[in-house]
Structure formats: structure tokens, C-alpha cells
Amino acid sequence: MKAACVKDYRLLAKKKLPKFLFEYLDGGSYSELTKSQNFKDLEALPLRQRVLRGSSNIDTKIKLFGSSFNLPVALGPVGLAGMYARRGECQALKAAENCEIPFSLSTVGVCSLEEVSKVSKKPFWFQLYMIRDRSFMIDLLNQAKEAKCSALIFTVDMPVPGSRYRDYNSGLAGESWLSGNIRRISQAITKPSWALDVGVFGMPHKLGNVTPLLKNNSGLEDFMEWMSNNFDPTVSWKDIEFVRDHWDGPIILKGILDPEDAKQAAAMEVDGLIVSNHGGRQLDGVLSSVKCLPKIVDVVGDQLDIMVDGGITSGLDVVRMLALGAKSVLLGRAWVYALAAKGQIGVEHVIDLIHKEMIVAMTLTGCHKLDDINESVIDNLSNDL
């Protein structure tokens, strides 16, 4: 099957990946209500078609945190991306650079800051969790500086990991070392293409950035336990000052859903925030990102660059989010589905699809440039939010 959209790439990824990896990527927390609403609420926003507007030269370029990009779209940080294709973070970085959009490397990526920086031609973003070992955090921040990362995404909605039932059902979590390995290997051998590309030639299968903490216990089987034991539930607003003390560049807080938290973020003088519920993978039952976005834009939209993720699968979705006040969006599952299916080429294809879909949506809503996209692009806005 030739993929024509993100949903096609999801099907291709499901066919190619071992069950435990697909379920980790595709799943949400608990009953997955929030994950589901991310998609439903966004798709439910009707666009307002305008015709005969002369929109022939569509400009999608944007400037974010001092750098210019071709689209208001970034590849968001995704843990374990290097398990979905051989050295997956490096492939995704190259795709982002070729398409002139930002790439964000996760703290818990397979490829380390050092490995990714060796193949990069431009600065990329680094995502950081609050980890109990503050000295190790400082070391990571120093590595990010050495790698010439241009912005720091500080994830604030994961002091403890949410319970993801699919991970227990698939064998990724809740198993002993022996039984877990047996289940995962039995799944992998039924997917020979992945087993060869990633299982054999994609080694080492370690969390590159946290290997110094885990030492010999840095494989996939240690990932879930490490998250539970090393994320810090004591994290507070004062820790933003700690991060600022050790990072000179832009700081973007990821995981803001409440206007009061957005106000606090602005008071801490961070540079941007990402309206996010972690893809529905943390506190199930919270509002979708698109439902939270307008309220946050209302209170801090004139102070911070506001980005958003959650449920974005097309260029139409990007236009919807921009119409509600976001300056840019982040892709998560969308780019990893494509990475799993087709590697770097697949990621570039998804970005190109989104670009073309944006041009169609902007043309048919009468928008020549990104600044033209506002709430008037959404039909009956007051009835939908």
C-alpha cells in the first residue's frame, strides 16, 4: 500500500512493527479517553471556506526562537524513536533538516545527543525531563550546549508516568526480565523486516542519553522501571529557575493545559510553551489540547510563543490550531508512524503531505500567509469551543 496520509502510515507501521513497539507508540493512558478526544475535538472544528480570494502565492514560512523555518510544524520529542527504524532519531533529524523544520530529541531517545549532533547540519532542539539526579541533569544540559541545541523543551507534565495498559498487555511492562524478553523476541521474529533492520543492524538498543545513569542496565527492558524510579514528583516552579541557571537559550515548557499555569510560566519568563496532554498518555480524562488552547492564548498569547500538540494528523489540523492562536504545532505519533514504515523518506513524505494540505486549506479559506490565519477561519467558533 502506498501511503497517502498519516492514517495510512499508521496501518503500515502496525504491519511492520512488533506488537510491543506499536502499542507503546499508538496507545494512551488508562481508558484512552483523552487520546481519543484529541482527535475527535480537532476534527470537529469546521473550516470556513472562502472563494475568489486570489490566494495563489501561499507563504508558510515562520520564525521561531530566532530561527527561520519552512513550516509552522516541528517534529516533537518521542521516546524510543530509534527502535522504530535503524538509528531512528538520526533519520528523523535528516528529514527535518531537508524539509527545513525543527527536530526535537527526547531525553529517552535511543540515539544520544552526541550521535545526533554528529549527523546534524543545523541546530536542533533538546527535550528534558526533571530527573532526580540534578547533577546528571546539569551534565545533560552541558551536552546539549556542546551539541549546539538551539532550544530546550522542558517537559513538566510527567513527574510520574501515567499507567498505559497496552504496555502491560504487550509485554513491554510488568514482566520479569526473562518472560518479557521471551514475549518481545517472539513478537519480533514475526516481523522479519524490522528484526533485520532494527533488531540486528540497529544496535545498540540503549537509551543513549541516560546510559551513564543505567550503566549496564540501559536496555529496553529497563526503560519502564527507569521512568518510574527516576522522574521526580517533587518538581515545582522553582525548578524552572534551576534549569535557567544552567541553560542560556530559549526554554519551552511542554505540558501546559491550564490558564493559571500558563500565567505562572509567563511570570517565570520562559520563552514559549506547548499546550499538551502528552498525547493522552498521562492523566486520562483531561481536556483535549484543542479545547485548552484558546483559553491559554487569551491569557498569555501576547507574551509567549504558544505551540500545541495532540491529535494533529494533517495540514488541515495545523490550520485549525493556528486559527485558535497557536504559533506552531508539534507532530508526535504522525512522524513516528512514517519513520517505522519508510524511514527518513517516510518522514519527509509526511511533512510534504502536511505542507501541501496546508496550502489547500489556506487557499480555500482565503489566507495568503500564516498571519492571515485567525479565528475567522473556523466556522461557528463560538458553538464549538
Topology:
Layout: H1 6-16, H2 19-26, H3 33-43, E1 62-64, E2 67-69, E3 73-75, H4 88-99, E4 104-105, H5 113-119, E5 125-129, H6 134-146, E6 151-155, H7 165-170, H8 177-188, H9 192-200, H10 211-214, H11 223-230, H12 238-245, E7 251-256, H13 259-267, E8 272-275, H14 289-300, E9 305-308, H15 315-323, E10 328-331, H16 333-364, H17 381-384
Parallel strand pairs: 3-10, 4-5, 5-6, 6-7, 7-8, 8-9, 9-10
Antiparallel strand pairs: 1-2
Domain count: the total is: 1
What is the highest CATH level, the class?
Alpha Beta
The SSE string, one letter per element, is: HHHEEEHEHEHEHHHHHHEHEHEHEHH
H/I helix tally = 17
Spatially, the strands of the biggest sheet line up as 3-10-9-8-7-6-5-4
| N→C terminal distance | 37 Å
Indicate the mean pLDDT. 93
CA radius of gyration? 20 Å
Attribute tags:
385 residues, alpha/beta, TIM Barrel, 8-stranded parallel beta sheet, two-stranded antiparallel ribbon, 17 helices, 10% strand, globular
How would you characterize the overall build of this protein?
By secondary structure, the chain is of the alpha/beta class. The protein has a single domain, classed as Alpha-Beta Barrel (TIM Barrel). The chain has helices at 6-16, 19-26, 33-43, 88-99, 113-119, 134-146, 165-170, 177-188, 192-200, 211-214, 223-230, 238-245, 259-267, 289-300, 315-323, 333-364, 381-384; strands at residues 62-64, 67-69, 73-75, 104-105, 125-129, 151-155, 251-256, 272-275, 305-308, 328-331. Strands 3-10-9-8-7-6-5-4 form an eight-stranded parallel beta sheet. Strands 1-2 form a two-stranded antiparallel sheet. The model has no long low-confidence stretch (mean pLDDT 93).
